[in-house]
Input
Amino acid sequence: MRVDADKPPPSLRPTATAMRNKVLDVEGDGGSLSLYIPTSSVLHGVVRGHLSRDMAERWIATIQPRLQKGVLLAGFHDWERMTSYESSARYALTKFLGATYRQQPAHILVASRLVAMGVSAASLTLAIAGVKLTSYNNRDVFERALAEALETPMMPPPSGSS
Output
């Protein structure tokens, strides 16, 4: 195994650190979804294979109560190994983010062209709602942003914001 001096081993990468405090683990329909809240201000999601509507609904049901309590979470979603999704899952997540996620950015790592197109379409819709969605096709850049979020305390939202 070759070790690159500029890159930490996988066990020390930010994604490994972000895989603490698992709040949801779902398998089925040809895919898996895991959600973690490693710090009070970061949500880390990992999808492998196919993302079904059921998985999206479980995701929303897990996170929505936290957001309703005023918890602000910057989302970092590793979808590099997601291969497909149900359009109803994309619609449900886009609708949820647009309605409840205006305070914090969402970051998504993609590799599949199909998934990248879906993220791009969702990004346009979410921009209208004021949600900043950043997509990445480079793991190192995604992990740098994640590492910064893990080390930075979240600022409270401006007063009077909704």
